[in-house]
Every structure is written in structure tokens, then in C-alpha cells.
């Protein structure tokens, strides 16, 4: 639960289209809703932010305290967050910046709000800088859905785009690794593990995939099977494919449980397996179900 002070800021923010008074008056403020790392519950936190060349930056300052704030631990466990910015609400992926990039962005934050420089002097820890990224491929996804088929395609486009993004980042990592080995003649990677950027995007993809498949197994498939018993074998196959994909998803999640410590070669192999199996699954699901789902309006109406 938010503190009473934070809750009052949240209430004022939402009641006034993102405008608040008191110590935050005239400041740049957003609301960040995260999923608890341990509880799995939703938590909303008011945070100051800075824009830099289109990037939306927040800082885990915790007022210069000795520990990272709870919201930062939450985004490491569940990178998909909800951002309220003025009257706009959207989902984003929270990606902590690393190394030189983190240092450069933090100096940009201090230049915009010198208070963060003061927080830095109060603690020995490195204050995290987190970039709130809206998925780049969202522009390719239609905003409106006329029927269930359109809605399924929206979700599938998001999953395909996020998976493609993770693979592109992984390929870039291995290209950099190859160049490093050519120059140094060393087997050491240019940085430990895979990096937080790949990790966060992959975990966000896995969370969305699990939510989508769980919803289909619990609701969509049983409902459709009741009206289309002739498709029983189809639903059995789709459910089994969900299990196969979930096993790969579990392998990826286990690899990424150690922040920055995933084995890059093994991760790449599991990601390739995920791409092959999930693409084949989505292709089959669309071929089998879209003609039927196109007959059902979205959003669904009240029961007849």
C-alpha cells in the first residue's frame, strides 16, 4: 500500500489530469505502477521524471537512502509497468541503463534537477537510472478491434514484435562479442552476462506470453470447444503446444533469474527454440481459429 502522503499525491494527480500542488507543484511527475516482486500485487508510486531525446527517465534515488526503492526491485522481477503521464496512460518496459550510458543519463538528470546530485552524495550506492520504453513495434498494431479475430491478431502482433526485438538485441550482443574477440583474442564477453536491456525485454515478453496462454486455456478454448466439438483435436493440439512453449519460457526465466549472469550461449539457443516453436504455434492457431473468431464481435456483448 502507498504511504498516506503518496496516496494523497496519487489521488490529486488522477483528479487533476496529472497536476499536483505542494512540493511537486510545477515539477515533472508521473505515476508508475509495478508488480510486486514477491507479492505479485500492483503498486503505484509517484516519481519525478526527466525527458532526454525522447527517452523517459526515472531514478531510484530513494532520497539518497542506503537501499534501492521497492519499485526498482519490482521492475527487475516484472519489467512491464503502467505509466500515467498527465492524462495519458500506457504500458512500458522498464530498462535500467548500464555503464557509460547510465552515467551519461544520470548527468542529464542532474542537469535538469540538481536535487538528484544531492541524493548521490548521501549514499555509497549507484543510483539506478531506468528508461521507460514504449515498445517500438506498437505503431504497427491496429488500435481498434471489430471482432475476436482482430483482438487475437493484435496480441499476436505484439508477441511477434517483442520476440523479434529480443532476438535483434541478442544478435547485436553477439556481433559485439565477435568484434571484441577479434580485437582482443579473448573468450571473455565485453560485459558480464547479457545485459539488463536484453533481460528486461525478454522477461516482459515472457510475462505477456504466459498471461495470453493462461487466458486461452482457462477461458477461450473451453468456451469455443463447447460450441465447436468438431475442433476438439485442434484445441488439444493448441493446449499441448502451450505446454511446450511454457517449458522453454521456464528455461529462459531460470537463466535470467540471476541479474546480468545468464549464460549468453545457452540463452541464445533457448531463444532460437522459443522463436521456432512459438511462430509455428501462432501460425497454426491463426489458421485454425481466426475464421470462427471473426464471427464474434469485440468487445463481447452481454450474455443473450
From TrEMBL:
Q: Give the Gene Ontology MF terms in alphabetical order.
A: coenzyme F420 binding; oxidoreductase activity
Which Gene3D superfamilies does the entry link to? Answer: Electron Transport, Fmn-binding Protein, Chain A, nmb1532 protein domain like
Hemerythrin-like domain mapped to chain residues: 151-293
Q: Which residues form the signal peptide?
A: none
Q: Name one GO cellular component term.
A: plasma membrane
Pfam families reported in the protein's UniProt record: F420H2_quin_red, Hemerythrin
* InterPro entries to which the protein is assigned, alphabetical: F420H2_quin_Rdtase (IPR004378), Hemerythrin-like (IPR012312), Split_barrel_FMN-bd (IPR012349)
Give me the reactions it catalyses: oxidized coenzyme F420-(gamma-L-Glu)(n) + a quinol + H(+) = reduced coenzyme F420-(gamma-L-Glu)(n) + a quinone
The similarity annotation says: Belongs to the F420H(2)-dependent quinone reductase family.
User: Per its record, how is this protein called by name?
Assistant: Nitroreductase family deazaflavin-dependent oxidoreductase
Identify the species of origin.
Answer: Streptomyces venezuelae
Amino acid at each position: 500500500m502507498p504511504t498516506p502522503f503518496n496516496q494523497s499525491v496519487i489521488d490529486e494527480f488522477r483528479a487533476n489530469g496529472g497536476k499536483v500542488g505542494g512540493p511537486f507543484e510545477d515539477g515533472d511527475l508521473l505515476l508508475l505502477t509495478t508488480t510486486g516482486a514477491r507479492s505479485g500485487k500492483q503498486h503505484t508510486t509517484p516519481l519525478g521524471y526527466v525527458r532526454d531525446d525522447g527517452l523517459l527517465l526515472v531514478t531510484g534515488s530513494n532520497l539518497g537512502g542506503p537501499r534501492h526503492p521497492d519499485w526498482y526491485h519490482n521492475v527487475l522481477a516484472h519489467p512491464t509497468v503502467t505509466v500515467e503521464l498527465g492524462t495519458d496512460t500506457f504500458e512500458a518496459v522498464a530498462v535500467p541503463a548500464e555503464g557509460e550510458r547510465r552515467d551519461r543519463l544520470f548527468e542529464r538528470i542532474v542537469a535538469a534537477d540538481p536535487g538528484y546530485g544531492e541524493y548521490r552524495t548521501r549514499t555509497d550506492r549507484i543510483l539506478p537510472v531506468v528508461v521507460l520504453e514504449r515498445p517500438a513495434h506498437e505503431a504497427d498494431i491496429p488500435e481498434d478491434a471489430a471482432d475476436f479475430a482482430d483482438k487475437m491478431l493484435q496480441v499476436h502482433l505484439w508477441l511477434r514484435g517483442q520476440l523479434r526485438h529480443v532476438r535483434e538485441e541478442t544478435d547485436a550482443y553477439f556481433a559485439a562479442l565477435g568484434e571484441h574477440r577479434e580485437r582482443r583474442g579473448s573468450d571473455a564477453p565485453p560485459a558480464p552476462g547479457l545485459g539488463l536491456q536484453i533481460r528486461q525485454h525478454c522477461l516482459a515478453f515472457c510475462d505477456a506470453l504466459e498471461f495470453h496462454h493462461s487466458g486461452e486455456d482457462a477461458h477461450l478454448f473451453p468456451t469455443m470447444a463447447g460450441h465447436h466439438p468438431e475442433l476438439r483435436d485442434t484445441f488439444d493440439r493448441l493446449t499441448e503446444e502451450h505446454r511446450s512453449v511454457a517449458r522453454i519460457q521456464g528455461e529462459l526465466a531460470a537463466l535470467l533469474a540471476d541479474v546480468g549472469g545468464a549464460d549468453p550461449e545457452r540463452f541464445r539457443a533457448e531463444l532460437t527454440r522459443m522463436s521456432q516453436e512459438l511462430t509455428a504455434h501462432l501460425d497454426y492457431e491463426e489458421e485454425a481459429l481466426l475464421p470462427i473468431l471473426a464471427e464474434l464481435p469485440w468487445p463481447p456483448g452481454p450474455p443473450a
